[in-house]
Structure formats: C-alpha cells, structure tokens
Give the backbone structure.
Amino acid sequence: EIVMTQSPATLSVSPGERATLSCRASQSVSSHLAWYQQKPGQAPRLLIYGASTRATGIAARFSGSGSGTEFTLTISSLQSEDFAVYYCQQYTDWPLTFGQGTRLEI
Amino acid sequence: EMQLMESGGDLVQPGRSLRLSCTASGFNFGDYAMSWVRQAPGKGLEWVSFVRSKASGGTAEYAASVKDRFTISRDDSKSIAYLQMNSLKTEDTAVYYCTRVSLAVALFEYWGQGTLVTVSS
C-alpha cells in the first residue's frame, strides 16, 4: 500500500497570504496525484489532478506541482472561503489512498 | 446538472447488514466507474470500493478493511450504484460518499453529499 503523508497537519495563515501544503508518497506515484478541498459539513471537492491540472471551475490561485514522491499545493492569495481541510490522493495503484489531511486555519 | 444522491444510511447493530444506494442523474451513468469513499467522525477520507463500467469489465476493487464483507454493484438501467455491507463493525461507522470516477483514471471527480452509517449496539 502506498502511504500518503501530508504536512503540516495544521497551517495557520492570514487572508491574502500564500499557503504551501505538502504531500509525500511512500513510493513513486508519477503524476497520479489529486488534491481535494473539504469545508465543514460538506463533501470534498476535486481541486487538482495530474499533480498540476486544475479541475473545472477551480480558481487560478490554486496550483499544484511535483512528481514522483513529493507534491505541493499552493494557494497564492488566501481568500476567506479557502479555509478548509485539504487532502491528497494517489491513483497510481490499488488500494487508492489519501493523506491524512492538512487543516488550513486563520 | 450532475447529481449523486446517497441513501440507506442508518443506525445498525454490529454484525448486521445494510445496503447503501447512490442514485445518479445528469450524466450517462453507464459510461463511468463509480466508487464509495467514507469518513469516520472527525477523521480523514478512506477509499472503500470501486466498480468499473460495463465497457471496462464491470469488475470491482475493495479496501482490505472491507474486503469479503462489502459488495459494490451497479444497475445501469436505473443509474444506481449500491454498496452492500455485511458483518458490520463499529469501526465502519462513517459518512459514506458516493463518487463518480474520472473516465481515464481512478480519481473522484464528483461527490454526493453522503449518508451516515452508525454501527452501535
């Protein structure tokens, strides 16, 4: 099983600042990496796939990078609606696995 | 508009069974793989099960934690995906999300709002 590890567990930032979230895979997943956003009481939403491609309707302030085992989600200028939990997920091998999440808070 | 609507969540005793349904609309259901992802209270996301489209063989994949207890299936004529859960354990307590899987790779494009399964005596 590929273990996905996210850091930090919690990131405290202010609106307008830049946020950088990390995700590490226990073995290479190539670019088969997705990011999801989950707000309280809501279902997750796909943000990024293929490590760096924004999903439909996702704002340009969200960007993803990386390949192999190291990945980054960057939010360039935080808006109030961006405070949520973010998960990475690998889809290169079974079982599909998620990271434990990074909570982005003010 | 694309929609996924889960139903069937309930409070059930350990060892009992439950069947979840996911009713889809707004897209050609038969073209897509479908999957279930769960989230225990206050915890992260855990993939549970996956069923391929009929064109891709209609076969299923399972997480080790549910293999041999859960069965995923689909009825393309009704645009419904099912998750039959047997021998339920307290650790199966979670919100269960139905997801539509990307056509090309196993990522979760769209999510339903979830249905709560509580396993407790």
Notes: Chain B has a mean pLDDT of 97. The interface with chain A takes residues 35, 37, 44-47, 50, 61, 63-64, 97, 102, 105-114 of chain B (CB under 8 Å). DSSP finds no helices and eleven strands in chain B. Residues 36 and 98 of chain B are 5 Å apart (CA to CA).
